[in-house]
Design goal:
single chain; alpha/beta; 12 helices
């Protein structure tokens, strides 16, 4: 029986895939499988993965005939995975030896639905440690209790799917799949759903995953239309949270986070192509109009002057009332 399935999407990462695959080999175990999803790469990535299928113990290679994006590639991996436990890795990141075994031991000791862990962010030669914004470590907690308060960073602001491990029962409950087709911010609705609906989780202090940041080909570095999918992602967060029994308590956090992300994109609008920048302003105005206005007013009033000013300015723009109309 497969104990752990590791889902690894790849798309045009021929420069970095060998490091990723070497780190998987250093984490291999007889009861681990590595589901490698080639999301229709057009560089040398497919050849690298074909070699890995032969040489990496536990490798299972799946190739998309058309590019679907990270969310869809992860879903393909989830559908093919057979493990009792599941986790993720991106095709340009890498792991310390024994990382997965450390997380698996924590999962089995704690008996919770999922664990979350810290990570090392790598930007060129620079390294920085990023920690899960949860103070209590090594004990089982209620995921819903880690969403608030609205005024500071919490567990839902640390959305990285690869920074943790998950029990198969979450797949069976429909909590691990991502929203099909989202090209960015795919992990935002995912982490909110996980924290609203899972029963238990824990945070462990462990640094074993290395997240490569600032890659020129990464979608986070490209100011094209795909970046605007963050609006679809956060609209989903707001819509689903509004249906929750605790909506009155949770919506201020969801709205404030959405506003912070909108302000962030508006604050770096110069990196967008001109047509996309115009669409960002229009779609942001529309998104603000769709939010519960009393909650929105409180959220903007609670923010610093620069962010509040950006949001109030764009809020005054005439805007269509739907993402579809804005697009």
């Amino acid at each position: 029986m497969v104990k752990l399935s590791v889902i690894v999407p790849f798309y045009n990462v021929q420069t970095y895939a060998p490091d990723t695959l070497r780190s998987l080999r250093a984490n291999a175990r007889a009861d681990f499988e590595f589901v490698l999803v080639d999301d229709c790469s057009t560089d040398g990535t497919p050849e690298i993965l074909q070699r890995a299928e032969r040489e990496l113990p536990g490798a299972v290679l799946i190739r998309h005939e058309r590019n679907g994006g990270l969310a869809t590639a992860r879903n393909t991996g989830l559908d093919a995975a057979g493990g009792e436990y599941l986790t993720f890795l991106d095709g340009d990141d890498w792991l310390a030896p024994g990382h997965f075994e450390h997380l698996l031991n924590a999962m089995e000791d704690l008996g919770c639905d999922f664990v979350r862990t810290d990570h090392v962010q790598c930007t060129g030669r620079s390294r920085s440690i990023h920690r899960v914004p949860v103070g209590r470590r090594g004990e089982v907690l209620r995921p819903r209790d880690a969403i608030l308060p609205a005024s500071r960073s919490t567990a839902v602001d640390y959305p990285y799917a690869w920074a943790g491990m998950y029990h198969r029962r979450l797949v069976d409950r429909g909590l691990l799949h991502f929203t099909h087709g989202l090209r960015t911010a795919e992990d935002r609705p995912w982490i909110w759903r996980l924290h609203r609906e899972a029963d238990s989780f824990a945070v462990i202090s462990h640094l074993g995953i290395f997240y490569r940041r600032g890659i020129a080909s990464s979608l986070t570095q490209i100011g094209d239309i795909r970046q605007l999918d963050f609006i679809k992602a956060f609209d989903q967060v707001i819509e689903e949270t509004a249906k929750d029994a605790d909506a009155e308590r949770l919506l201020p956090k969801a709205v404030r986070t959405y506003c912070a992300v909108i302000s962030h994109h508006l604050g770096s609008i110069e990196r967008y192509e001109p047509a996309v920048a115009r669409k960002l302003r229009t779609m942001s105005a529309a998104a603000l109009k769709r939010m519960p206005q009393d909650v929105l007013n409180e959220a903007i009033d609670s923010m610093d002057a620069d962010r509040a000013s950006r949001l109030r300015k764009v809020r005054r723009r005439p805007a269509p009332l739907s993402v579809e109309a804005a697009a």
